[in-house]
């Protein structure tokens, strides 16, 4: 079957690097972001890899891969990474660092961009590791009235037909739908490539369009107020036992036996 031309949109979020241990701000309203290493949300790296591999490994007719990020000026670095991995161009929606969008605002913004770009496939991360909302893909599918498959571990496309294996508790579920479609990515989907130096250089020449929420007609009023952010309780240190008898009496002492 001849395949439809794929116009893929890949939303990528700039978040605190996964290897950094977040520190809660003194006023407990969030985590410290200044002076902290940031990177692309790891689930979004899977999305970019999947989009690019549909073109270069699976040889599907991919017409366009557009990365989009809403965030402060530095979000452009994340877009450059996406383009160095193989996205064709990108869109930066300027949003102040101290007024980040809630998932509903991001979903409305993505709906407007998807309509402008005539996208027919959108890969989002299953969650952003900073706010752990896990909502944007689902809300976007609702707003666009498109089918969605969340937590994808395998994606197969043939013509208009998309088959997605999803990670579910203790196994996988296989779904079929037709384009246009929303897919959210899970860890087993692929292994994101590293951007090579020549591709990083090439990405500097790729286009980054700037847009504002006003341009897109998006109401970004927050509906939620963060009441408090707290560190988990400090863990108690462990103890050593000499032998099995020692372990049994320790467990009894703790009421575990
Ligand atoms: P969340 O619902 O916040 O956990 O985010 C899920 C996914 O939505 C992320 O993995 C991204 O693909 C996308 N997303 C969320 N926030 C943004 C943003 N500010 N810019 C671009 N994409 C975003």
TrEMBL record:
GO terms for cellular component: mitochondrial matrix. Pfam families: ETF (PF01012). InterPro entries: ET-Flavoprotein_bsu_CS, ETF_a/b_N, ETF_b, ETF_beta_N, Rossmann-like_a/b/a_fold. Residues 28-220 form the Electron transfer flavoprotein alpha/beta-subunit N-terminal domain. GO terms for biological process: amino acid catabolic process; fatty acid beta-oxidation using acyl-CoA dehydrogenase. GO terms for molecular function: electron transfer activity. Coiled coil: none annotated. Belongs to the ETF beta-subunit/FixA family. This is Probable electron transfer flavoprotein subunit beta. It comes from Cyphellophora europaea (strain CBS 101466) (Phialophora europaea). The lineage of its organism: Eukaryota, Fungi, Dikarya, Ascomycota, Pezizomycotina.
């Amino acid at each position: 079957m001849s395949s439809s031309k794929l116009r893929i949109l890949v939303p990528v979020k700039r978040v605190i690097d996964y290897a950094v241990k977040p520190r809660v701000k003194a006023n407990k309203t969030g985590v410290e972001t200044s002076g902290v290493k940031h990177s692309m949300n790891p689930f979004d790296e899977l999305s970019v890899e999947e989009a690019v591999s549909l073109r270069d490994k699976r040889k599907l007719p991919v017409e366009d891969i557009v990365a989009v990020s809403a965030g402060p000026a530095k979000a452009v670095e994340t877009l450059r990474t996406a383009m160095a991995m193989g996205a064709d161009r990108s869109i930066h929606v300027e949003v102040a660092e101290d007024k980040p969008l809630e998932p509903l605002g991001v979903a409305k913004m993505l709906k407007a961009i998807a309509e402008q770009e005539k996208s027919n496939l959108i890969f989002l991360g299953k969650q952003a590791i900073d706010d752990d909302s896990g909502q944007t893909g689902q809300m976007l599918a609702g707003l666009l009235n498109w089918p969605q498959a969340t937590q994808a571990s395998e994606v197969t496309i043939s013509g208009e037909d998309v088959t997605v294996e999803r990670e579910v508790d203790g196994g996988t579920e296989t779904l079929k739908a037709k384009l246009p479609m929303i897919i959210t990515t899970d860890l087993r989907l692929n292994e994101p490539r590293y951007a090579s130096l020549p591709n990083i250089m090439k990405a500097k020449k790729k286009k980054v369009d700037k847009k504002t929420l006003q341009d897109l007609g998006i109401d970004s009023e927050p509906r939620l107020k963060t009441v408090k952010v707290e560190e988990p309780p400090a863990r108690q240190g462990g103890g050593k036992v000499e032998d099995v008898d020692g372990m049994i009496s320790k467990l009894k002492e703790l009421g575990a036996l």
